[in-house]
Amino acid sequence: MELESLREKTLIDLFSAFEGIYGPSFECKYYPCHFAGQDCTLCYCPFYPCLIYDMGGELKVTSDGRFVWSCTNCWVVHEKDFSETVIFSLSRYPRQKLIEEDWFFFNEILQELVYGDVLALFDEGNYNLMEAILFDKFCEEIEEAEALAVKVEDFSIKSVRKVKSVEEADKEILIPVKDRRRYYGIKNGCYVVCEAERVPL
User: Fold this and answer.
1) Dist. CA 128–CA 173, nearest whole Å
2) Is the pTM for the entire model greater than 0.70?
């Protein structure tokens, strides 16, 4: 599916959800795409590609070398309570605003839902999402690490590359490198390795 068409379907899906939550979609040929009894009110996630590992997604490389955000392990948008929260949160905005807004607008709403606040920072012209992802993690300083600099345009990942500092990025979104259950990145100006599990607050 073309990405422009996917975003259009996402907004149509979202606007339909404003009219009512309908739960599982047993007639869908892909049901259940995540788990039995899932809430299918939001078939297409309005936050895609969120780039927030805490949601369960991660970067993957396709057979033709493109980077995509895989949501295979992200179930949260299909959990009824979270789905209702998303719909309530986004329904506060005029539909035209939701059509016109960019990735950053939607990502900051998601941060508020997941972390209780917008934690990412614009830093040297880049959007440092590591500040949110590593915020409540147990981290240790290490000698050297890299982060990922991701370029997103029109809700599509255009490029991904590794950088050793925020200054190396060029108007990109910075996220940690994920290696199994550990994140490698930069926190408070230091190289760190962090456990993927969130520390209870």
Assistant:
1) 6
2) yes
Q: Mean pLDDT, the chain, as a whole number? A: 89
> Two tokens at 65?
């070398």
**CB crowding 151-189: b at 16 or more within 10 Å, else e:** bbeebbbeebeebeebebbeebbbbbebeeeebbbbbee
- Side-chain-side CA neighbours of 9 within 13 Å: the count stands at 11
Q: Report the distance separating Cα 142 and Cα 152, nearest Å.
A: 29
Cβ burial, residue 20 (10 Å; 0-12/13-18/19+): exposed
| 70's tokens | 């895989």
pLDDT(201) > 50: no
Round to the nearest angstrom and report the end-to-end CA distance of the chain. 41
